[in-house]
Amino acid sequence: MASLIPSQPSLAALARQALEQTILAGNYMPGERLVEEHLCEELGISRPPLREALKELAHTGLVEHVPRKGVRIMSISQHDVFEIATLRRELERMAMDLALPDLDPVRVERCRQTVRVMERIAEDGTEGEMVTAGFEFHYAVVGLAGHARIESTYRAMAMQLQMCMALNNQARREIEDLDGNVARHARMLDVILRRDPDEIEREFDNHGNLSFLVDTVDQLDGATSESDRWLEGVRASLSETA
């Protein structure tokens, strides 16, 4: 018979949750080294539960163990951001083409539920929790198409997408709080429900505006000719709309 008293989360589980939210809040740069001594002091725990937490985070891909160098935040290069941003946009565009004009009420409600979760987080949650909820919103939007392979491709990029979202949110901090983040996503859903393809296209472009991310991307290594051309195009587009 199962115990009627719920088990308490372990120190490792609590540390994992705290670290995950801190990372997704954009408080670390991709590839930044994590120092165990500092983390133990910040979290108030010893090394064994910390190492267990880092091991669990490594399984999700959020951190990585580097031989003889320790643990660092997931590395993301300029080329990675180029691939993630462009693939995300094409998947979302394809999903909208398939979802319109007939939007399934059950799938729409799933989108609404994610917005309600974001509203609760804005009241007493953290930036890291908002990044996770923001991903779930976009995953639900992609799910409007009822296309399992699009959804699985999108889900496969979960951690990388959330890291990019964290970088974007970090750059937006001065002009957008958690309530503003929720409003931006709620507005996107309202536009989708109006079912105007041109308006939806504009809203996706505005929602995914990379003006805040460009300066951050410049701090990343791993530029390629493809990512350079993409960034040049982004900057040109931003200058035209300025």
TrEMBL record:
Q: Which InterPro entries match?
A: GntR_C, TF_FadR/GntR_C, Tscrpt_reg_HTH_GntR, WH-like_DNA-bd_sf, WH_DNA-bd_sf
User: Can you give the residue ranges of the HTH gntR-type domain?
Assistant: 9-76
Sorted keywords for this record are:
DNA-binding, Transcription, Transcription regulation
| Keyword set includes DNA-binding | yes
One term of GO molecular function:
DNA-binding transcription factor activity
On the tree of life, the source organism's domain of life is: Bacteria
Q: Which CDD domains match?
A: WHTH_GntR
Name of a matching Pfam family: GntR
Q: Would you tell me the protein name for this molecule?
A: DNA-binding GntR family transcriptional regulator
